[in-house]
Specification:
Length: 671
């Protein structure tokens, strides 16, 4: 009986120890545009202004019926004297903090507020006004709270910043601009001794380094690090010591033959970090990461894990018609899956850091990412910009999908900030300068926008790597894929090409609550996408999907003496085609008399997948039945190692027979 009591109390101690050694979170807002919490709200100008009411948080107040709308480039459309709406939103919210949090260090965290945010807790200032819309910021409010009692949060949110450079970088931009708390707000509670954050540097050779930032250590502490693979197996563990006054320690290790992260093989590991006082667990946290190495070899190309790669990329705004830049994980996932369906391998987060869940999906499903500091043709000043670089990199540093930091857009680059990214990123990712004028190459990469085919060909002669971060503008679905095949074949065959990023993924059509829910794209400014605002697939989508296919099928028409041999090229960088599946289908098309469109599969089968190494050519052999010429068409479908269809190639078999059928059904026998 005594033994049972000892075991029981030991178990209770372990459970309590584990609970109190981790960060605790209480959400004050909802988590996304579909899960909101009502706060008290007062709008100072425009619609529904001048009185206290309620508003859903997170949201943009324009989408809740308050204030006025502006498109960022309105000064270009209507002239430089155009006056932007500058209303403020006043927020109030009452909340309770648990009594047992009294011994903890507590922060209030804002994932995104447009644009200046002044925060008060129980009438006391939480800290300096935060400026910059797209960045996570937080305040230590431990000494301002009433524990076990009601507390009052007050925010004054200014749509236009009091800092001119913030407006230049974020507001006077070629996209819709809004106001409000558009990402979640929550409280974080830490034990008195804890680890604030970690930053990981994991290379393709298995080298692993982790910067650990302890806080408030009372004396020397032990730190244990465990690296765990996708099967939950601990592949290595190691320990270090943190002294009382340490604010940073770096621990290193080596993993033998790690599985590598790429967009084709998005393999993630988990690192668990635990802070101990002897055997007592004080705090623990975990991060997902991937082993991969990024290199810019000047005068050569972009290398990932010692393999030369080219970006098949697109620019993506964070956007949904009813809620603007306040979205949810389902939308993030949908966008990543649409990019994979387009056979893309990269995305540029234009022109600001995205929601964290988007990066998590890029990590786990597989896309290269350019993570961009805002700066649309004009830059932040150094004082504000340095703070925002820190907030951006600290939040995003451990995502293996991010291979470049982008310092602004098209001249919105403050070059004094270039070195700041590496301060917080131990892997020292390359920084790039997207630009729309020649002569702005940086780190050996020229990103110049909207060159034509012939000027692109000239730039690719050197000396820099050419990777346009915008090309083939899709305004009004303006033939984005019409010229893409020529561009992509040029990029594919050019030694100095780093690929490129199309403009853009989607039309920014906002549901105007002041215009009876009319969807507004601000004339020709915002309908730039290969997708509509609700992700409707426009005309170029399917052509783009075939052009970017990682399996290039050269045969365009079946010859009369077709013997089943088809030349193909493996345009994967890390995948042998023997890991893909190849299916053939013999089909007949429905005729007008059938009163339906489409086709009927009559016979189908799979063929042996050819053993073709990445970036190599070979032959696909299809064994068709003897009567294959009696059918209307042959489909060849290719599926990637995860079962996703990447291309369907259609070949007419007996075109004249199809025409004869239609003629006879329509006009009878006309012979």
């Amino acid at each position: 009986m005594q033994t049972r009591k000892i075991i029981f109390f030991a178990f209770i101690f372990l459970v309590i120890n584990n609970i109190y050694s981790q960060k605790e979170i209480i959400y004050l807002s909802g988590r996304d545009n579909e899960n909101t919490v009502e706060w008290d709200f007062y709008c100072t100008g425009g619609r529904n202004s001048g009185y206290w009411t309620k508003i859903k948080v997170p949201s943009h107040w324009e989408q809740q019926g308050f204030g006025d709308y502006d498109y960022g480039r309105a000064y270009h459309t209507y002239g430089k004297k155009y006056k932007y709406a500058d209303e403020q939103g006043l927020y109030k919210y009452k909340f309770t903090v648990p009594q047992n949090w009294k011994s903890k260090e507590i922060y209030i965290v804002f994932e995104g507020v447009m644009t200046d945010a002044e925060v008060k807790i129980n009438g006391q200032s939480a800290g300096p006004i935060h400026q910059g819309a797209f960045y996570r910021f937080k305040y230590n409010i431990s000494d301002k709270l009433n524990f076990g009692k009601e507390n009052l949060l007050e925010l004054t949110v200014s749509k236009m910043s009091s800092n001119k450079s913030v407006n230049n970088a974020e507001r006077y931009a070629d996209y819709w601009i809004f106001g409000g708390i558009f990402r979640p707000v929550y409280l974080e509670a830490f034990p008195k001794e804890y680890i604030e954050r970690v930053a990981i540097n994991a290379k393709a050779d298995g080298y692993f380094a982790i910067d650990i930032f302890p806080k408030n250590l009372k004396s020397m502490r032990n730190i244990e690090v465990k690296i765990i693979d996708a099967s939950k197996k601990v592949v290595t563990s190691f320990r270090g010591i943190a002294n009382k006054n340490d604010s940073l320690i770096t621990l290193t290790s080596k993993v033998t033959n790690p599985e590598l992260w790429t967009p084709e093989t998005p393999i993630l590991y988990t690192v668990n970090i635990t802070l101990y006082d002897k055997s007592v667990k004080l705090y623990s946290l975990s991060e997902k990461f991937g082993f991969r190495t990024i290199e810019i070899r000047k005068g050569d190309g972009i290398y990932i894990n010692n393999t030369k790669v080219k970006m098949k990329g697109i620019n993506r705004h964070v956007f949904w018609p009813e809620s603007g830049r306040c979205i949810n994980p389902r939308i993030d996932l949908m966008d990543v899956m649409l990019m994979k369906e387009l056979n893309l391998n990269a995305v540029r987060c234009s022109h600001y850091p995205p929601d964290i869940t988007f990066l998590e999906y890029c990590d786990s499903i597989g896309l290269f990412v350019i993570d961009e500091l805002a700066g649309w043709q004009q830059a932040y000043d150094t004082e504000v910009g340095a703070k925002l670089v820190r907030e951006m990199v600290i939040r995003d540093v451990n995502h293996p999908s991010i291979i470049f930091w982008s310092n602004g857009n098209e001249g919105g680059t403050n070059k004094q900030l270039d070195d700041d990214f590496g301060i917080y990123d131990p892997s020292n990712r390359p920084v790039i300068h997207p630009h729309h004028k020649p002569g702005n190459d940086f780190n050996g990469i020229d990103c110049n926008h909207y060159e034509d085919y012939y000027s692109s060909k000239n730039i690719l002669q050197g000396p820099n790597i050419y990777m346009p971060t915008e090309f083939l503008h899709g305004q009004d679905d303006g033939g984005m894929a019409a010229g893409l095949s020529d561009f992509w074949e040029l990029f594919w065959s050019s030694n100095l090409s780093g690929g490129g990023f199309l403009w853009a993924m989607l039309d920014e059509g906002i549901v105007r609550t002041d215009l009876n829910n009319y969807i507004d794209v601000d004339r020709v400014n915002a309908p730039d996408g290969i997708l509509g605002p609700y992700r409707q697939k426009e005309g170029s989508f399917y052509a783009m999907r075939e052009i970017f296919s990682p399996v290039k099928i050269f045969l365009n028409e079946l010859p009369q003496d077709f013997d089943g041999q088809i030349e193909i090229e493996n345009r994967y960088y890390f995948t042998n085609l023997k890991k893909c599946k190849f299916q053939w289908q013999l089909v007949n098309f429905y005729l007008p008399a059938n009163r339906r469109t489409g086709h009927q599969v009559i016979k189908e089968g799979y063929t042996d997948s050819p053993d073709i190494a990445p970036v190599s050519k070979g032959n696909l052999k299809i064994n068709l039945p003897d009567e294959w010429k009696n059918f209307d068409a042959l489909f060849i479908k290719v599926f990637d190692p995860y079962g996703r269809e990447i291309i369907t190639k259609t070949y007419k078999i007996n075109h004249s027979a199809i025409v004869d059928k239609i003629v006879k059904l329509t006009w009878g026998d006309v012979s």
